Amino acid sequence: MDLFFNLAINGLATGMLIFLLAAGLTIIFGLMDVLNFAHGGLFAWGAYSGVWMYDISGSFLVAILGAIVTGLLLGALTEWLIIKPVYGNHVQQILITLGFMLVLSEMLKVVFGPNQKSAAPPAYLDGSWQLGDVIFIKYRIFIILVGALVYGITYFILKRTRIGLIVRAGVMNKEMVQSLGINIRLVFMLVFMVGSAMAALGGVLLAPYSGVIYAEMGMEFAILAFIVVVIGGMGSFTGSLLAAILVGMAQAFMAYYVSELSLAVNMLLMFAVLIFRPQGLFGGKGDAA
After folding, report:
1. Which of 37, 135, 167, 256 measures 20 to 30 Å from 157, CA to CA?
2. In a domain, 283, yes or no
């Protein structure tokens, strides 16, 4: 039972990191019908900019804020230059955002150098607590709390606030919302920026968790995020949370019990979901929109 709790905590922390990346994808697709394969590049830029800010300032809070600002700025640039010309065309969105992700990865090497960067959690989040034989690693508990907080705040904004109502109304009938004097283009750009900031936040939190970051990490984690989005249901915000936790748990337990399947378990999960429930666990866009 102690081993179960230790593996479950590790899996939950991994799942929350994946959720922060997948949540941005879910919001952008669920509310804007945009397939953004450059999302992984924004994740990597969040990691690098956060580590750079941490090295300069020595403050992990500054690093997190710096990564979020980086995500917001790059998100605005991506929406304006890359996404805006291809709204409504999924094939063009896939092609242009895949190319842009490669550009973002190469730009990381130009700006920060081609070598891997090491990262460690701040002293107050280092170490662990122990309750019996169950070990609670401080940084993993921190990640779980941040992921839960992001989910709660985002869900509240979408379902209980005026801006959330405007966004959901704009998804259903953007012409009607525009006729009420609301700049729906600006609203959608803000949605894209928020989704990008979530990816950047996930990147900066991953850096101390994994201990090392590298330019190609964006592609690897983007694939994992899309697996989560498919399992949860394209456009379902709650589905992306539960699917990310499921993937994180599966990885943690498989890595311990059947290490040979730890890399394949995500694909197997997605395959099973697509066979028995093609729309995903929660299906449709109702939860996000």
Report:
1. 37
2. no
Show the tokens assigned to 39: 């999302």
> Residue type at 203?
G
How far apart CA 196 and CA 191 sit, in angstroms, is 9
Instruction: Indicate whether 286 belongs to any domain.
Output: no
> Given phi > 0 = left and psi -120 to 50 = alpha, else beta, which region is 78?
alpha
Structural contact between residues 41 and 100, judged by C-beta atoms closer than 8 angstroms: yes
Ramachandran area for residue 121 (φ above 0: left; ψ -120 to 50: alpha; else beta): beta
pLDDT band, very low/low/confident/very high, at 6 (cuts 50, 70, 90): confident
Mean pLDDT, the chain, whole residue set: 88
DSSP strands (E only) in the chain: 117-118, 128-131, 134-137, 212-213
- The count of other CB atoms within 10 Å of the CB of residue 284 is 15
Total number of domains in the chain: 1
Q: How far apart are CA 238 and CA 4, in angstroms?
A: 25
Does any domain span residue 15? yes
Which pLDDT tens digit goes with each residue over 94-110? 899 999 999 999 999 99
Per-residue tokens: 143 = 């990640």
| Amino acid (one-letter) located at 179 | S
* Per-residue pLDDT at 283: 67
- CB atoms closer than 10 angstroms to residue 168: 16
Query: Of 261, 287, 277, nearest to 27 (Cα)?
Result: 287
For residue 99, CA distances in Å to 16, 94, 102 come to 27, 9, 5
Could you tell me the residue range of the domain that residue 194 belongs to?
1-276
The model's pTM is 0.91
Report pLDDT digits (tens) over 29-77: 877 778 888 999 999 999 999 999 999 999 999 999 999 999 999 999 9
- Residue 1: what pLDDT? 60
The domain that holds 23 is classified in CATH as: 1.10.3470
Question: Do 46 and 202 meet the contact criterion of CB atoms below 8 Å apart?
Answer: yes
